[in-house]
Design brief:
The protein has 1139 residues and is of the alpha+beta class. The chain has 20 helices and 70 strands.
Length: 1139
C-alpha cells in the first residue's frame, strides 16, 4: 500500500483539487462492496401461526410472504424461534415488517439467543419497544467472538393484537472496508487525514480514494452535513405517556442533511455509542411514507436505502439527559442540507435552496419545537427567501400548544419537536406521527406573512396530536378539544385579530344565518337561552341533520355493559362545542381572572392516579373536568357550566371519529355540587358566559356599563334587528331581547354582524304576530351582571297576521309570486304546475297565511296547495297539506311592508332568482332577492258581462254586495212549446250573501263592475243539489262537445238567456263553473230560468192584458209592448209567457 508524503502544492494543484471535490459532490452515488454478509437460518417455529403463513415464511428470503399469528386465537406473548444452519458468529439480527398492512407489526418484544442447539439455555439481549413501526429494525448482538445457534423473539404486543414478520435475517460484519480506511486517517470517524497523506494517488479502494480527495480539496465544505454530532432525545412513547397526549411527538429528530435515493449505499463511521441504541432512518413523506431504518454500531457501518429520502440519526432513550452525544460521518454521501433556526440565517437558506432542482425531494426545516418536511418545489414556490419568519410562525403555534398543555408551568417542557410533513393525499390531517398537508395546499401554511398564515389549520392538526387522552378527548369532541390549541394560537399571533374563527366567521343559522360571528351566536341561543345540553346544541355544521337509527353496545352510567341497544345518533357542530372552553381561556387567562385555568385542569388529569379506570366513561370524565376547573380556580364555576349546558343530565350516543355515549345523570351532578359546596368556594359574580375575544377587555379592565339617558339613542331598527352603536352604548358585553310580557326571547353576542372595528352589534329583534314571539325591548348587559334598557319600540309592525290573504311581490325583481296562470288540472286529477311570478293581476297571485298547530303555512287557494322548495336551488313547487313546510316570516322594514320568508329550520329563504323564477337561498335580509313586499287583500273586483250572468268558481269564500245574486243549478227540466221541446236549467238562489269557497255558481246581476269581499274562514255548508261543476285551475282533457260554459242572449223558449254548448273547446278556464252534457240529457243548448218562474208561468196570447193593463219585464222595468216568447210579470206578481 502506497502512502504519499506531502509536497508543496502549486496554485494549479489547489484549484484542480477543489474542482475534483465539486465533481465528487455532484456524483452523489457511492460504489461499495457489501459489508454485511448474510447468515442462513435452517428452520423457524412459532407458538402461533395462521395456516399458509407459518414461521418458515419469515426465513424464505421473500419479502412478499409473511409469517402471521393465528387470525382467531392469538394470545400474547407469541414466540418465534429461529435456528441457524450451524453455530456461528452473528453481529446483527434484522426484523423486516410486512410490506403491506400493519397487522402484527411488533410493539414490545424481548430478544434472546442461545449458544447451543440442544440445551435450551437462553440469554436475554434486551426488551425493545418498536411501537408497531413499519420500518426494519436491527438488533445488535454483543461485540466479541460470540457464536450463537438460535435466536428467539418473545413478542408481547403487536398491531391489531397479532404478530407477523416478512423476514428475519442474520448478518455478520465484514471489517475489510474499515481496515481499508485506517492507514490514511488519524481518527475513528475518518475525518482527519494523517499528516503524510497529501494525495490519493495510489489508493486502490474507490471509497477511500474519494474521501481523501474530498478532504484535501475542501475539508470544511465537505464536512458540512456529512460530519456531525448528534444528541439523544427522550423516547416519544415515554414523553407521550407523561404528557397524556393522543399521539407521540416527532420520531425524526437529528436531521443530517444527507439524502439517499432508493438503492444508494453509504458508508457510515460512528463513535460515541454507549448503552443506548443508535440508528439511521430514511424517509420522504411525499415519495414513500414507509421509509426504512438501520441500526448503527461504533466503527464502520454500511446502509443501503430501500426507499428514497432524507437521512436522520435515530437516537431516542429515556436516559437522554445523561446519554452522550454520538459522532457520525456519512462518508462521501450526497448532501441536500437542512435548515435550523438556531444556527442558520435566511442567507444560508437562499444559498442552500438555489442550486436544488424544483422536485418532490424533501428539505427539513426546524425551529426550537417545530420540524417541517416539505418538498423543494414547495419551498421554491412559497418560501424561497424568508424561512426565518416562517419558522417563527410555526414556533408561535408551538408556544400556544405547549402553553395550553402547561409544559413550562409544570416543568414538563421537552426538546422533542412536533412534525408537519407534506403528502400527496387528503387536505390537512393529524396522524400518529404528526400532521400533514397536501402538497397542493401548502401555500397557506408556508407563507411567512402572519396576516396570511393559517394559524388555525396548523394549530388544529397539531392540536389533534396534543389532545389529552384519556380525560379531554371525549366522544363527540374529536374536532373540538383540539381547537382549544388552534384558537389560542390564532388570537395571540395572527396578523388579523379581527378575523377570529368563532367571533368573525360569516356563519350562523335561522335569522342570523351568514352573519359575522353567527357560529358563536348559535351557542348564545342554543345553550344560554334555550338551555340545550352541551354536545346536542345545533349549529351551522350539521344544521338540522336527521339522526340515524342504529344498534350499538349499551352501557350504564358507571360504564358497565348492558347489551345491544337501539338508539339515534348524529353529528353536531364542533365549533359550537368549543365556545365554553374558549370563554374560560379568555376570562381566566387573557382577562386575568384565573390565569392558566385550562392548563391547571390538564395537569390535574395528568396527576390523577389510575385516571382511566377511575373515570372510565365520557360522562365521568366530563364531570371530573368541571370539578378540576372549580378546584383549580378555587371558585364555584358550576353556574357557568350549567348555563353552557355541560352540567345537565344527558344520555346520548354522539357521532364522531369514534362515536360513543355521553351519559350524565342527576346523581353525578349532585355529587359534584356537594363537593364544590364542601370547599366553600366563592361564587363568581361576572357574566362569564357572555365573554368573547372582542369584549374581553371589558372584563379585564372592569369597565362599567354606560348607556345613553335617552332611550333608543344609538339604536336603529332594520330587518328584524337593532343596530346598537358601541360608542353610545358603552361596555355592554351582550344584549338580551324581551317580549312585552318580560320573557327573554333572544340573547345576542357582542359584535354580531359587526365591522372589523367591532363598532356596533346587530341585536336580534324579531317581529311576529304572536305576542310571545315579538320583541318589545332590549337590555344591555354589563360584565358584572348590570342590565339597562336601551331600546323599546312598541308600535313596531309585529309581522304578518295569519289567516288572511296577501299578495307577495319581489323587491329585487318587482313581480308577484303566483301559482301560475297556466297551472292546469286534467280529468284524471293530474295537476301540471307552473309556479312562477307574474305581473298580471289575477286570483293566482293571492296567498293565504294559514295558522295551524302553532305554525304558519303558505297556502295558495287557487291551486289548493302549499308552497315548498329545495334548498339552495332555483327550484320551488307546490305540495299537499301533509308535505307542507312551515315558514318563519320576519319584518324587514316596518315602513314599506317588506318581509323575508324563512323555511323553518333550514335557514333557506324564498328568493327571486330572476324575472320569472323563484327558489330557496340563504342570506336572510342581506340578500335583496330574499325580500318581498306583502300587501293584504280584502276584496277583489270582477265585471258582470252584458248577458247579466257570470259562471264562476272562486277558490275562497266571498261576500256578495247588494245587487249581486248567486244561483246553483238544482236540476234540469223539459217543457214543450208550440210542439217543440226545450231544456231548462232550474236555478236555485243561494241563501244569504256568502258563497262558500270552491262552490260553482251562476252570478246574476245587471252588467257592470262589482267588488266582493274575501272571507278567510268560512264554514257555510254547500247548497245541494248542484249540477254545476267548478274548477279553480284550467280544466284540460275534456272531450269536444261535452261541456257548456258560455252564456249568450236569446229570445227563445220563454227566457232571455241560454247556456250554449261549445262544440270545439276541450278546456275550461280557471275559476269557472260549467255544465256537462251528460248532466243535461245531452242537450245542445239549455235555457236558464229560476225555479219560481218555471213553476209559476201562465201562458197568454199577445192580445191579452192584465186587469190593470200593466206588464213588467223580468228586470222590473215596465214593458211597452209584449213580444212572443217572452216572460213578463203582471201587476199582481204573476208570471206569464206570451204565445
Amino acid at each position: 500500500m502506497n502512502i504519499l508524503i506531502s509536497t508543496n502544492l502549486t496554485l494549479q494543484d489547489k484549484v484542480m483539487r477543489k474542482f475534483l471535490f465539486f465533481l465528487m459532490c455532484l456524483s452523489l452515488s457511492v460504489t461499495a462492496s457489501a459489508q454485511l454478509q448474510k447468515v442462513a437460518f435452517k428452520s423457524a417455529t412459532a407458538t402461533s401461526s395462521q395456516s399458509g403463513e407459518d414461521a418458515n415464511k419469515a426465513i424464505d428470503g421473500n419479502y412478499g410472504t409473511i409469517w402471521h399469528s393465528s387470525y382467531s386465537s392469538t394470545s400474547f406473548p407469541v414466540t418465534i424461534t429461529l435456528t441457524l444452519n450451524e453455530k456461528t458468529h452473528v453481529d446483527i439480527i434484522r426484523y423486516v415488517p410486512r410490506q403491506s398492512g400493519t397487522n402484527g407489526n411488533w410493539n414490545e418484544v424481548e430478544v434472546e439467543y442461545s449458544e447451543n442447539t440442544i440445551i435450551n439455555k437462553w440469554t436475554s439481549l434486551g426488551t425493545y419497544f418498536l411501537n408497531g413501526s413499519g420500518s426494519s429494525y436491527d438488533f445488535n448482538m454483543p461485540e466479541g467472538d460470540l457464536s450463537i445457534a438460535k435466536v428467539r423473539f418473545k413478542i408481547k404486543s403487536g398491531s391489531g393484537n397479532f404478530a407477523s414478520a416478512a423476514e428475519i435475517e442474520a448478518y455478520t460484519i465484514d471489517n475489510t472496508k474499515q481496515e481499508a480506511f485506517k492507514p490514511y486517517f488519524q481518527d475513528e470517524l475518518f475525518t482527519v487525514l494523517k499528516p503524510e497523506v497529501t494525495s490519493s494517488e495510489g489508493i486502490e479502494d474507490a471509497d477511500v480514494k474519494a474521501l481523501v480527495d474530498n478532504l484535501l480539496a475542501d475539508k470544511e465544505g465537505y464536512s458540512k452535513f456529512r460530519v456531525g454530532e448528534y444528541e439523544a432525545y427522550r423516547t416519544v412513547w415515554s414523553l407521550q405517556s407523561e404528557l397524556k397526549t393522543k399521539a407521540p411527538y416527532n420520531q425524526w429528530e437529528n436531521p443530517t442533511g444527507i439524502y439517499l435515493k432508493q438503492g444508494e449505499s453509504c458508508w457510515v463511521a460512528v463513535s460515541g455509542i454507549k448503552d443506548d441504541k443508535v440508528g439511521v432512518k430514511i424517509r420522504n413523506w411525499v415519495k414513500d411514507e414507509k421509509g426504512c431504518s438501520f441500526s448503527l454500531r461504533n466503527g464502520l457501518n454500511q446502509i443501503t436505502a430501500t426507499s428514497e429520502g432524507n437521512v436522520f440519526v435515530d437516537y431516542y432513550t429515556d436516559n437522554f439527559e445523561n446519554a452522550p452525544n454520538v459522532n457520525v460521518h456519512f462518508i462521501n454521501a450526497p448532501v441536500r442540507g437542512y435548515w435550523d433556526q438556531e444556527t442558520m440565517t435566511n442567507a444560508d437558506w437562499v444559498a442552500m435552496l438555489k442550486p436544488l432542482k424544483s422536485d418532490s425531494s424533501i428539505i427539513i426545516v426546524r425551529s426550537e419545537h417545530a420540524q417541517l418536511a416539505y418538498p423543494v418545489c414547495a419551498w421554491k414556490q412559497h418560501c424561497p427567501t424568508n424561512v426565518d419568519s416562517l419558522m417563527t410562525l410555526y414556533q408561535q403555534v408551538q408556544w400556544a400548544e405547549r402553553d395550553i398543555l402547561g409544559l413550562k408551568k409544570y416543568g414538563r417542557e421537552a426538546k422533542n419537536r412536533q412534525l408537519y410533513f407534506a403528502s400527496t393525499y387528503g387536505f390537512m390531517a393529524a396522524t400518529g406521527v404528526g400532521a400533514y398537508c397536501n402538497v397542493g395546499s401548502l401555500g397557506a401554511i408556508m407563507t411567512p406573512d402572519s396576516k396570511k398564515f393559517d394559524f388555525w389549520g396548523v394549530g388544529h392538526e397539531w392540536g389533534h396530536n396534543n389532545q389529552i387522552e384519556p380525560g379531554f378527548h371525549w366522544s363527540g369532541c374529536g374536532e373540538t378539544t383540539n381547537n382549544i390549541y388552534a384558537s389560542w394560537a390564532q388570537i395571540h399571533f395572527t396578523g388579523t385579530p379581527s378575523k377570529l374563527r368563532l367571533e368573525d366567521e360569516n356563519s350562523g343559522i335561522d335569522e342570523y344565518s351568514n352573519m359575522r360571528g353567527g357560529r358563536m351566536q348559535t351557542y348564545f341561543e342554543e345553550a344560554l337561552r334555550k338551555g340545550v345540553q352541551w354536545q346536542l346544541q345545533d349549529g351551522p355544521d350539521y344544521h338540522g341533520a336527521t339522526p340515524d337509527t342504529k344498534t350499538v353496545a349499551g352501557y350504564d352510567y358507571d360504564g358497565n355493559p348492558t347489551g345491544q341497544v337501539t338508539t339515534t345518533s348524529r353529528n353536531y357542530d364542533h365549533f359550537v362545542k368549543l365556545v365554553p372552553f374558549w370563554q374560560l381561556n379568555l376570562w381566566g387567562t387573557l382577562a386575568g381572572k384565573c390565569p392558566d385555568i385550562i392548563p391547571m385542569v390538564i395537569e390535574g388529569i395528568r396527576t390523577t392516579e389510575n385516571y382511566g379506570s377511575t373515570y372510565n366513561t365520557n360522562g365521568k370524565q366530563q364531570v371530573n373536568w368541571m370539578k378540576l376547573a372549580c378546584d383549580s380556580a378555587k371558585l364555584d364555576l358550576l353556574p357557568f357550566f350549567e348555563k353552557a349546558g355541560m352540567l345537565k343530565p344527558i344520555n346520548a350516543y354522539i357521532e364522531d371519529y369514534g362515536a360513543g355515549w355521553n351519559k350524565i345523570n342527576e346523581a353525578m351532578i349532585n355529587t359534584l355540587k356537594t363537593h364544590v359546596a364542601s370547599k366553600r368556594y366563592p361564587a363568581f359574580t361576572e357574566e362569564i358566559n357572555y365573554i368573547n375575544a372582542h369584549n374581553m377587555h371589558i372584563y379585564r379592565d372592569n369597565l362599567k356599563l354606560q348607556v345613553p339617558t335617552t332611550l333608543g339613542a344609538g339604536c336603529t331598527y332594520s330587518n328584524g334587528m337593532v343596530k346598537v352603536m358601541h360608542s353610545q352604548v358603552k361596555n355592554a358585553v351582550a344584549f338580551e331581547t324581551y317580549n312585552s310580557k318580560g320573557s327573554l326571547i333572544r340573547i345576542t353576542m357582542y359584535g354580531l354582524g359587526a365591522d372589523d372595528a367591532h363598532s356596533y352589534t346587530y341585536v336580534l329583534y324579531p317581529a311576529s304576530s304572536e305576542e310571545s314571539d315579538a320583541a318589545d325591548y332590549i337590555m344591555a348587559v354589563g360584565y358584572d351582571g348590570t342590565r339597562e334598557k336601551i331600546y323599546q319600540k312598541t308600535n313596531l309592525k309585529k309581522g304578518l297576521a295569519t289567516n288572511k290573504f296577501y299578495t307577495i311581490s319581489s323587491v329585487g325583481k318587482g313581480n308577484a309570486l303566483s301559482c301560475g296562470a297556466s297551472t292546469s288540472i286534467n280529468q284524471s286529477g293530474v295537476i301540471t304546475w307552473d309556479l312562477a311570478r307574474t305581473s298580471a293581476a289575477s286570483i293566482n297571485l293571492i296567498w293565504y297565511l294559514e295558522k295551524r298547530d302553532g305554525k304558519t303555512y303558505l297556502y295558495n287557494p287557487q291551486s289548493d296547495s302549499y308552497f315548498t322548495g329545495t334548498n339552495n336551488t332555483k327550484t320551488t313547487s307546490l305540495c299537499d297539506k301533509a308535505s307542507a313546510p312551515s315558514w318563519e316570516i320576519s319584518c324587514v322594514n316596518e315602513n314599506n311592508n317588506t318581509y323575508i320568508f324563512n323555511m323553518s329550520g333550514t335557514g333557506q329563504y324564498i328568493n327571486s332568482y330572476d324575472a320569472t323564477g323563484t327558489g330557496l337561498w340563504s342570506g336572510g335580509s342581506s340578500d335583496a332577492n330574499n325580500i318581498w313586499t306583502v300587501e293584504e287583500i280584502k276584496t277583489i273586483d270582477f265585471t258582470v258581462p252584458s248577458s247579466g250572468y257570470y259562471l264562476g268558481c272562486c277558490p275562497f269564500a266571498i261576500e256578495l254586495p247588494e245587487g249581486l245574486e248567486a244561483y246553483v243549478v238544482g236540476e234540469t227540466t223539459k217543457a214543450t212549446y208550440e210542439g217543440e221541446e226545450f231544456t231548462y236549467a232550474v236555478m236555485d238562489k243561494v241563501d244569504g250573501n256568502v258563497v262558500p269557497a270552491r262552490m260553482p255558481v251562476i252570478l246574476k246581476a245587471a252588467p257592470g263592475k262589482y267588488t266582493v269581499s274575501l272571507i278567510a274562514e268560512d264554514n257555510t255548508p254547500l247548497t245541494t243539489p248542484n249540477l254545476l261543476k267548478g274548477t279553480t285551475l284550467k280544466q284540460t282533457g275534456l272531450t269536444k262537445a261535452t261541456v257548456m260554459s258560455t252564456i249568450s242572449a236569446s229570445n227563445e223558449a220563454g227566457t232571455t238567456r241560454t247556456m250554449k254548448v261549445s262544440l270545439t273547446a276541450t278546456t275550461v278556464p280557471a275559476n269557472r263553473a260549467y255544465l256537462l252534457n251528460t248532466d243535461i240529457n245531452e242537450a245542445t243548448q239549455v235555457y236558464l230560468q229560476t225555479r219560481d218562474i218555471l213553476t209559476g208561468i201562465q201562458e197568454i196570447d199577445g192580445t191579452q192584458s192584465d186587469e190593470n193593463g200593466v206588464y213588467y219585464e223580468l228586470n222590473g222595468t215596465r214593458a211597452k209592448k209584449l213580444q212572443s216568447g217572452h216572460v213578463y210579470i203582471t201587476s199582481d206578481g204573476k208570471r206569464i209567457l206570451v204565445k
